[in-house]
Amino acid sequence: MKSAAAKRAFDVVVSAVGLVVLSPLYAAVAVAVWSTMGSPVLFRQPRPGLAGRPFELLKFRTMSDARGARGVLLSDADRLTRVGRFLRRTSLDELPELINVLRGDMSLVGPRPLLMEYLPLYSSQQARRHDVRPGITGWAQVHGRNAQTWEQRFELDCWYVDHWSLRLDLEILRRTIGAVLRGEGISEAGHATRENFRGNASTTREDG
User: Fold this and answer.
1) Segments forming the whole domain that contains residue 10
2) How far apart are CA 87 and CA 94, in angstroms?
3) What's the pLDDT at 77?
4) What is the pLDDT of the chain when averaged over all its residues?
5) Per-residue model confidence (pLDDT) at position 196
6) How far is it, in rounded angstroms, from Cα 44 to Cα 21?
7) In terms of DSSP H, where are the helices of the chain?
8) What is the DSSP letter of 205?
9) 96, 58 contact by CB (below 8 A)
10) Burial classification of residue 140, based on how many CB atoms lie within 10 Å of its CB (0-12 exposed, 13-18 middle, 19 or more buried)
11) Which residues are within 8 A (CB) of 155 and not within 5 positions of it... i.e. 6 or more apart?
C-alpha cells in the first residue's frame, strides 16, 4: 500500500508508543551521557528535511567537547567516549529521533538526514532524496550504512523515493533490527565516524 497519510499515521502511532515504552531506557541513557560528558545530554543540529527545509535533529551525545592546548577540538576518535561508542554500536544514540518523527520532521523510514552544507553539492538526481521525509533508518542503512560510498548511498536513497510503500517500510524496519544487532556499517573503515561528502570544499565530519 502506498499512501502518504497511512505512512504518517503509522509514524505517529509507532513513535508515540515507542516514546512511552522506551522511556526507562531513555532515562538510563540520559544519565549515562550526563555522568560521562555532562550537559547537554542531547546533540542538536539543523538538518534538511522534506524539500530541504531545515529542522533540529535530536540525538544523544556521543562525543565530548575535549580540546587541545590551543583550544581546537580534538579529532573525532579522541572525542568519541566509551559510552558514545556503545551508543553508536547499538544505535541507542538515535532514540531521541522518535521525537522528530512525532513532530513530523522525520519518518521512521526514509533517507537519513545529512548536513545542511551538502544541499548545494547534490546533483539534481541526488537532491531527489529530499522528496520524502528523512528517516531514522532507510534502504541505504540496511544495505551497508556508512560502509558504502556516497554515490552508492544516494542511489539507494533515490531508489527508495521511487519505490516506497508501507510494506517496504516494514521490511526495512525488520532488516534494521538485524543490522543493529550485528553492528554493521557503524562507521567508515579506518575512521571513528564517516568522511563527509566532499563536494567542492567540505572537509569536516558529521556527528552521526
Assistant:
1) 4-182
2) 8
3) 80
4) 88
5) 84
6) 23
7) 4-21, 23-37, 76-79, 82-90, 97-103, 150-163, 166-182
8) B
9) yes
10) buried
11) none
The model carries a pTM of 0.87
Confidence of residue 149 (pLDDT cuts 50, 70, 90): confident
Q: Cα 127 to the chain's mean position, in Å?
A: 17
Cα–Cα–Cα angle for 152, 156, 161, rounded to 5 degrees:
145
Q: Quote the CA–CA distance of 132 and 158 in Å, as a whole number.
A: 10
What DSSP letter does each residue of 37-72 carry, written as one string?
H-S--EEEEEEE-GGG-EEEEEEE--B---B-TTSP
Q: How many domains does the chain have?
A: 1
Residue 183's Cβ-side half-sphere holds a number of Cα atoms within 13 Å equal to 6
What is the rounded average pLDDT of the residues 26-47?
A: 96
Beta pairing partners, 137: 109
Residue 185: per-residue pLDDT: 57
Cα gap 88→151, rounded to integer Å: 23
A 10 A CB-CB count for 61 gives: 24
74 has a pLDDT exceeding 60: yes
- What is the predicted pLDDT for the residue at 165? 94
